[in-house]
Design goal:
Order of helices and strands: EHHEEEEHEEEEEHEHEEEEHEEE
Distance between the termini: 36 Å
Radius of gyration: 20 Å
Number of helices: 6
Strand content: 25-35%
Low-confidence stretches: none
Largest sheet: 9 strands, mixed
Oligomer: single chain
Number of strands: 18
Structural class: alpha+beta
CATH class of the largest domain: Alpha Beta
Number of domains: 3
Mean pLDDT: 91
Shape: globular
């Protein structure tokens, strides 16, 4: 018989919500296990149990927003750093893209609990996802995430076939081997990287290992969602018909 598992962990693993959200739902009595309401934090359950969220929890999830921002250089993805502002400060009514087709009207509540789902370095630009939805955050940055992130990277230096092969697979950072990547020349001075992980300053450090210097880095896609024509410094809502 399988060992009991913490309910909040199992809910997160099944993609129902984040662990923090699970604890909140449990405290509010919005979670049912095999038909029985669970209200005690830390409850352990059978890994094969049936879990159902109360309709109130489902409505709460539907009301949560996800925002796509074209982050400029000079903004940090998450917490403020001395002399720099977090990218979330760009989420204002006047910076919303005019061509955003999502039906939502901007509300201050959309900024509550809004957190970046993945980092984008201060000296990098491109697509940054900020979300109130723990399910999306886990999908994009969970340890088992298989979501591709695509980057266009301008470089200086010489790269031979062996170096290109190492960028695709064979490099390690911080004593851990990197997952296989897809790296190819886009043009004479620009590489296209497709990764399924996001270690700190990963692409820049990968390039350093093979004798290249990054002079420009732009993320253009996360999963099936592309940056597209979203202008620099502007944002839009993730639409209901879009999936990562």
């Amino acid at each position: 018989m399988a060992e009991p598992i913490r309910l909040s962990k199992l809910m997160s693993e099944r993609g129902l919500c984040s662990r923090r959200e699970a604890d909140s739902y449990i405290e509010r009595g919005l979670v049912f296990v095999d038909g029985t309401r669970v209200t005690e934090l830390g409850t352990r359950v059978d890994p094969d149990c049936a879990i159902r969220l109360d309709s109130e929890a489902r409505v709460r999830q539907q009301q949560r927003v996800t925002i796509l921002l074209h982050k400029p250089v000079g903004y940090v993805s998450g917490q403020p750093e001395p002399g720099y502002q977090p990218a979330a400060t760009l989420i204002r009514p006047d910076t919303r893209w005019r061509e955003d087709r999502a039906p939502q009207r901007f509300a201050r509540d959309h900024l509550k609990g809004l957190a970046p789902a993945g980092r984008l370095d201060i000296d990098s630009t491109g697509l940054l996802v900020l979300t109130q939805d723990g399910r999306i955050a886990r999908q994009l940055i969970g340890d088992d995430s298989e979501i591709e992130k695509e980057y266009l990277v301008r470089v200086e230096g010489r790269l031979d076939d062996r170096g290109l092969a190492l960028l695709n697979h064979g490099l390690s950072l911080d004593g851990r081997q990197l997952r296989p990547a897809k790296v190819a020349w886009q043009n004479a001075d620009q590489l296209r990287f497709i990764l399924k992980e996001g270690r700190k300053r990963q692409i820049r450090r990968m390039c350093e290992r093979v004798g290249l210097r990054v002079v420009g880095l732009k993320r253009v896609r996360i999963g099936r969602v592309r940056l597209g024509d979203l202008p620099l410094g502007q944002w839009r809502y993730l639409r209901d018909d879009e999936r990562f």
